[in-house]
Design a protein that fits this description.
By secondary structure, the chain is of the alpha/beta class. About 50% of the residues lie in helices and about 10% in strands. It has 20 helices and twelve strands. The strands form three sheets. The chain has a seven-stranded mixed beta sheet with strand order 6-5-4-7-8-12-11, with helices on both faces. The radius of gyration is 23 Å and the shape is globular. The N and C termini lie far apart (about 55 Å). One of its GO terms (molecular function) is O-methyltransferase activity. Keywords: Methyltransferase, S-adenosyl-L-methionine, Transferase. One of its GO terms (biological process) is methylation.
C-alpha cells in the first residue's frame, strides 16, 4: 500500500511541476526564479490561473503527504510540536526590521553588524536567522553572514506583508495561545459571542475585536490600522482579484448593476470599474467607510468612475438594513465569515429583500472541504486526485488556518459548501453554483420560490 502511495505522490509532483515550469517559461520574462533572487518575477504580480494554482497546491500537498507517509510518526509529530518557533523568529526579524537592513547590503551582513544596528546580541540574532534561512527565508552567504532572498526581501517595512507578518506573529499568535483555555471554559467554550474569544482572554478587552480595532483602546487602534495595511498583502497573496478575471461579468450585461455590500473603501469595485467601464456600481459600508471611499480613495484611484457617475456610495448597516434594491449582482467578500449563523442569516435575508427575480448574490469566501473523499457523483466541488487528500491537504491549508483564526478572534468561522447552502435556504435563497478560483471560491445564490414571496 505505502509503496504504491509513494510512487503515486511522486508522479503527481512530477506532473504538476511541468505545469508550473511551463507557466514561468511562457511569462513575459521566461525564467524560473531561484530562491536567491531578490528581483520580482513578472508572475509574482499577476492573478494566477486556476490550473497554475492547482498545480502548486498539488505539489505542496503531495510533498507534505509524502513526508508524513515515509517518516517515523514520532519524528513527524516532534517537528509539528516545535512549529511555533518559526513565526516567533519571523516576528524577531520584522520587529527589528532586519530585511530593511539587509536591503542596504545585498552581498550580506555579518551578525556582528546586524547586532550593532539592532541592539541585539549577535550570536542570538544569528541563530534566529539561521533557522529562518533553513526554512528558506533569508540566506546565509557565508558563515554568520546573512542576506535577503526571494522571500525575505518582501518583508521590508514598506511592503504590506510586513504589517501582515507582524499582525499574525504578534496579535494573532498571542491570542491563539489562549484557545485551549477558552475551549475548556464551561461558559465561553460553548458560546458564540464575539466577546467570548481567545482574543478577549489574551487582551482582557471586554468588547468584540471590531470594537477593539475601531478605537476600543489606543493599542487596539494601532493593531487595527496595522491589520488594515496587512490586508492589502493578503488580497495580493491569495489573488482576490481572481473574481474579476474568472467570473463572467459580461454575461450579466455590460451595463449591469453591481452592489458591493460591506465592501470597505471599494478595492474590488475599483478593479471591476477599470476592467468593465460600463458597469453601474454601488459601494455600501458603514458611513465612515463610504465617506472615506468617496472623499479619499476613489478620487485618487478611480476618478473617472466618479466623473462618469458610474459609482454611488451608500451607507448601510447590513445587520439592520437591506442594500439598495434591484441590482443584478450583490457581492459580499469576506463578510459572512465574520459572523455566527444567526447574524449570517440576518445579513443574507436583508440582501434577499433587495433582490429581484433575476438578481444574484455572490459570497466570496474560503470554501472548506472535509478531508473524507466523496463519490464523484456526490461531490459538489472538485476533489484532488488520489492518493492526495481530497482537499489538497497542505496545498490548501490556509483555509483551515483562517477558519481557526476566525474562532480565535471573533468566534465565527469559515464554512463548507453544505453550510453555505443551508444558510442561503434559511434566508430564502437558492444555491446556484460554486465558482472555484483555486484558492477562494464564489457561492452564487438566486431567489428561491419561497424567498421571492418573503
Amino acid at each position: 500500500m505505502a509503496k504504491g502511495t509513494i510512487s503515486a505522490l511522486v508522479e503527481l509532483i512530477a506532473q504538476a511541476s511541468k505545469i508550473v515550469e511551463a507557466a514561468y517559461e511562457s511569462a513575459e520574462k521566461p525564467w524560473v526564479p531561484d530562491l536567491d533572487d531578490v528581483e520580482p518575477h513578472p508572475l509574482d504580480e499577476h492573478v494566477w490561473s486556476k490550473e497554475l494554482k492547482t498545480a502548486v497546491q498539488t505539489i505542496e500537498g503531495a510533498c507534505a503527504q509524502l513526508c508524513a507517509t515515509i517518516a517515523k510518526p514520532s519524528y513527524t509529530l516532534a517537528h509539528k510540536n516545535l512549529g511555533f518557533i518559526e513565526p516567533v523568529c519571523i516576528n524577531v526579524a520584522l520587529t527589528y526590521k532586519i530585511p530593511d537592513l539587509l536591503m542596504k547590503k545585498p552581498e550580506g551582513m555579518h551578525i556582528t553588524e546586524i547586532g550593532e544596528k539592532t541592539g541585539l546580541e549577535p550570536s542570538k540574532v544569528g541563530r534566529v536567522l539561521r533557522l529562518l534561512a533553513t526554512k528558506h527565508v533569508f540566506r546565509e552567504v557565508s558563515e554568520n553572514v546573512f542576506a535577503n532572498n526571494r522571500l525575505s526581501v518582501l518583508l521590508n517595512s514598506q511592503n504590506p506583508l510586513y504589517s501582515l507578518g507582524l499582525h499574525a506573529t504578534d496579535h494573532v499568535q498571542k491570542s491563539a495561545n489562549s484557545l485551549t483555555d477558552v475551549l475548556g471554559d464551561k461558559e465561553w467554550g460553548h458560546s458564540f459571542s464575539p466577546k467570548h474569544t481567545a482574543f478577549n482572554r489574551y487582551s482582557q478587552f471586554p468588547g468584540s475585536l471590531f470594537e477593539y480595532f475601531e478605537g476600543g483602546t489606543p493599542k487596539g487602534s494601532e493593531v487595527g490600522a496595522r491589520f488594515g495595511r496587512g490586508m492589502v498583502a493578503w488580497a495580493q497573496a491569495f489573488d482576490s482579484e481572481a473574481v474579476i478575471d474568472q467570473f463572467p461579468w459580461m454575461e450579466i450585461g455590460e451595463r449591469a448593476t453591481v452592489c458591493d455590500v460591506g465592501g470597505g473603501v471599494g478595492n474590488m469595485l475599483i478593479a471591476l470599474a477599470k476592467r468593465y467601464p460600463k458597469l453601474r456600481l454601488t459601494l455600501q459600508d458603514l458611513p465612515e467607510r463610504t465617506l472615506q471611499a468617496r472623499m479619499e480613495v476613489w478620487p485618487v484611484k478611480c476618478p473617472e468612475a466618479i466623473a462618469e457617475k458610474r459609482i454611488e456610495f451608500q451607507p448601510i448597516d447590513f445587520l439592520k438594513e437591506a442594500p439598495v434594491p434591484g441590482c443584478q449582482i450583490y457581492y459580499l467578500k469576506n463578510i459572512i465569515h465574520d459572523w455566527p449563523d444567526s447574524e449570517a442569516i440576518t445579513i443574507l435575508s436583508n440582501v434577499r429583500k433587495a433582490m429581484h427575480p433575476s438578481s444574484r448574490a455572490l459570497l466570496h469566501e474560503f470554501i472548506l472541504q472535509s478531508t473524507n473523499r466523496l463519490p464523484a457523483s456526490e461531490a459538489k466541488y472538485e476533489q484532488a486526485p488520489e492518493p492526495l487528500l481530497p482537499n489538497y491537504g497542505l496545498g490548501r491549508i490556509t483555509q483551515y488556518y483562517v477558519d481557526l483564526n476566525m474562532m480565535v478572534q471573533v468566534n465565527s468561522e469559515e464554512r463548507r459548501l453544505s453550510e453555505y447552502i443551508k444558510l442561503g435556504e434559511a434566508a430564502g435563497l437558492q444555491f446556484e453554483k460554486l465558482w472555484d478560483f483555486g484558492t477562494t471560491g464564489l457561492v452564487e445564490y438566486r431567489l428561491n420560490n419561497a424567498g421571492a414571496n418573503l
